[in-house]
Design goal:
Elements: H1 2-52, H2 56-65, E1 71-72, H3 73-80, H4 84-96, E2 100-104, E3 112-116, H5 118-126, H6 131-140, H7 144-160
Antiparallel strand pairs: 1-3, 2-3
Helix pairs in contact: 3-4
């Protein structure tokens, strides 16, 4: 009798070890997928910087603006899936570089309209869609159940990484801070 008890205990231990090993293997496979995603995003960022002198976030804004003649800052924030302040910071820099034009709406003087300048349009014509655009398109093409499951799983992953960051998420590769100015000596 005691021999069969030991056999049952050994079987249970082996099953637990296989389950633990399976979880470890799955975690490694998921980590590798996350690494691949981050690498792809970094490649987009580096290419945008080197080829166009603009980061991926600003390139994303240019591509979103290229779909309409003019849109409001609220519309842009919605379409880029960021809060209005993050969109406003990036747009401000694009206005400074001459890629985007801000005009006051003739219908409502409180509303600012955004549009690409000729310089902004030229960049969009020469550049492929940005990573963020591709992510949005890919997720939008998923069935609703898969989108919901992906959100749930990403929420679980983020919860396991520690406390959530405060405030809304900034645009990819934008820290949300205003550019620092060089100090005079």
């Amino acid at each position: 009798m005691s021999g069969s008890g030991n056999c049952g205990t050994m079987t249970a231990l082996m099953a637990r070890k296989r389950k633990t090993q399976s979880a470890a293997d799955d975690a490694k496979a998921i980590l590798n997928r996350v690494r691949h995603l981050v690498r792809l995003l970094r490649v987009f960022e580096k290419e945008a910087q080197s080829q166009y002198g603009l980061g991926a976030a600003k390139m994303f804004i240019l591509h979103v603006l290229s779909h309409d003649e003019e849109i409001s800052l609220n519309e842009l924030a919605d379409r880029t899936a960021v809060d209005q302040s993050s969109a406003s910071l990036a747009v401000g820099r694009l206005v400074e570089t001459g890629h985007v034009r801000r005009t006051v709406s003739p219908e409502d003087r409180r509303q600012v309209r955004l549009a690409l300048t000729a310089k902004g349009k030229a960049v969009v014509r020469r550049s492929p869609p940005e990573a963020q655009e591709r992510i949005l398109e890919s997720v939008q093409s998923m069935p609703p159940r898969d989108r919901a499951q992906l959100m749930t799983l990403l929420d679980q992953l983020m919860a396991g990484m520690g406390p959530p960051a405060s405030g809304p998420a900034p645009m990819l590769f934008e820290d949300g801070a205003a550019p620092s100015k060089k100090r005079r000596k």
